[in-house]
Amino acid sequence: MSKSPDPTRDELFAEPLTQPELFTFSESVAGVFPDMINRSVPGYATVVAMTGVLAAQHARPDSTIYDLGCSWGASLLSAARKIDYPSCQLIGIDNSEAMLKRARLNFQEQLSDQRVVLQEAISWTLNWKTPVWLF
């Protein structure tokens, strides 16, 4: 009996794309993104962990912290876990609704934090009235 393929394992691009410009962060890409990013970016887990450390070191009360291209929200989650200021707002921006959907689920499962807002890039407006940190 053969094993079923792991639906979270990235095998989407085992064969080269015939038209690479057609790549999008679709639902199928979003579904395997953690595997994809961890295998393709050396030290990704360390970068995500250090993002939280840096955010905590530099955040101040009433800061707004933006994660542009937040995908599943890993860096934002790391920052939310490390920042102790309840008045900080953490905003995740992405142009892929599929990624934002996964980020919302990720936050629901791992961390209930009212400071976190996830938005589509098209509807996003930068708040220049408060300090801004980009990670």
Describe the fold and architecture.
- There is one protein chain.
- The protein contains 4 helices and 4 strands.
- It has 135 residues and is α/β, with parallel strands linked by helices.
- The protein has a domain of 76 residues: Vaccinia Virus protein VP39 (Rossmann fold).
- Strands 3-2-1-4 form a 4-stranded parallel sheet, covered by helices on one side.
- Helix 4 links the parallel strand 2 and strand 3.
- The longest helix has 15 residues.
- The N and C termini lie far apart (46 Å).
Attribute tags:
single chain; 135 residues; 4 helices; 39% helix; Rossmann fold; alpha/beta
Secondary structure topology:
Blueprint: H1 27-40, H2 44-58, E1 64-68, H3 74-82, E2 89-94, H4 97-110, E3 116-120, E4 132-134
Parallel strand pairs: 1-2, 1-4, 2-3
Helix pairs in contact: 2-3
Quick structural gist:
The protein is of the alpha/beta class and 135 residues long. Helix content is 39%, strand content 14%. It has helices at 27-40, 44-58, 74-82, 97-110, and strands at 64-68, 89-94, 116-120, 132-134.
Distance between the termini: 46 Å
H and E order = HHEHEHEE
Structural class call reads alpha/beta
Share of residues in helices:
25-40%
Kindly state the number of beta strands: 4
* The CATH homology group name of the domain at 59-134: Vaccinia Virus protein VP39
CATH architecture of the domain at 59-134: 3-Layer(aba) Sandwich
What proportion of the residues form beta strands (DSSP E)? Answer: 5-15%
